[in-house]
Amino acid sequence: MKIETHFHEDTFTLTYIVYDESSKDAVVIDPVLDYNPNSSSFFYDAIDKVQAFLEKESLNLKLILDTHAHADHLSGAQELKKRFPFAPYGIGCEITQVQEVFKGIYNLKELKTDGSQFDLLFADGQEMQAGTLKFKVLHTPGHTPACYSYLVEDCLFTGDALFMPDFGTGRCDFPRGSAEDLYNTVHDKLYSLPDETRVFVGHDYQPEGRELKFETSIGESKAQNKQLKASTSKEEFVKFRSERDAVLDAPRLLLPSIQVNIDGAKFPQPEDNGAMYLKIPFRARG
After folding, report:
1. CB-based burial of residue 213 (10 Å sphere; 0-12 exposed, 13-18 middle, 19+ buried)?
2. Total number of domains in the chain
């Protein structure tokens, strides 16, 4: 098994292409759609690079995965699916909870909240086959209630649950996010995996301007993660995470990202003038 990593500098997102060199079967995790908020326009540079790699290596794309409904970038899953129509798009089954919450926030009256926008909905502990690649699906809530990590052989793709040791963990202040849940996820579930398990993170924010890093290990995280070591108590983490999240700004692309991503990464339907529109809640600062 090999792993190709693409870093999206604008959103600090890591996209992973996991593939079997012998069978040429491949899975793409967390693809990104480029979006310019100033002009409210999208483009395909990141997806073009993924497609170019798949074609260069003559890979058979078997599955497209998102670790959760991202709030900091638009998912490129549907665009990738258009280009590789036989590859289903999957996400965790708790996406329905996220749909229910944001349907109300955005007043999206037509939004279905049954997860039917996705081809596959996963449950905790489920094992799945993507060609010759075998995955185990782990429900890893806290950042959102619908976060999942994917375990392939000795490689764990953690999305926004666990970052590089010098950065810490994902934030927990999104609707139905929970610092207590994230502690249980990381400390009790992920840290129970073998220390040599390789960890591939969903973002790298390059603290203090350091070079890009995207791979750590369970053992290194247990010993060195600045926010949540194996020795960190739940009370310590919940206090830290709650205080930290209280002063964080909302993600720059939160408003467009959530609307698209909870609807299966699909664009809004064009209106009678042929244009597509996203909604922006407008309220007094509280």
Report:
1. middle
2. 1
